[in-house]
Amino acid sequence: MAEIELNAFAVWAKACCVSSQPSSSPQFVLQQSLDQGFLLVAEELGSGRVTGFAAAHVVGRYLHIVEVDVEPDLHGKGIGKALMLSLLEKGRHEGLGGAVLTTDRFAPFNAPFYAKLGFEILTAADVPGFIQERLDSQIASGLDPQRRVAMQMELDGTNSRFSSSGN
Known about the structure:
This protein is an alpha+beta fold. It has helices at 2-16, 27-35, 79-93, 111-117, 129-140; strands at 39-43, 50-59, 62-70, 98-104, 120-121, 148-154.
């Protein structure tokens, strides 16, 4: 999975004008996602080659989407969408109220992709504390604050924004 993430990073970095060194998710992040049942892997039929993965974990009543990556040569084939829809369905099945993530505002395979799935960009006042900490960390590491956004999607149909229970 680290190889997929590093390959996807190169595409993302070019689209977002990022010059930082590529890195993959720390093992404990993937392990937490696995332990909670929110680490999904896409495999190529027949060969079993891993072509993408999605990692998330539960924070309060919300599913925090940590990472979604697909091999660059397979972008646009529906793999990322299938992974996301599976994560969201699993979150609904677990009774979670919503899903949240941080992403780039402009790259077509980031915020515009998530918006097509039903995510909305949060206003500063609506960003849960744990997500604000992630945004702050991303910005401190050199990412452009004008490009970074938090997005959320309701999973339970209550039409309510994040409450302090998700912070």
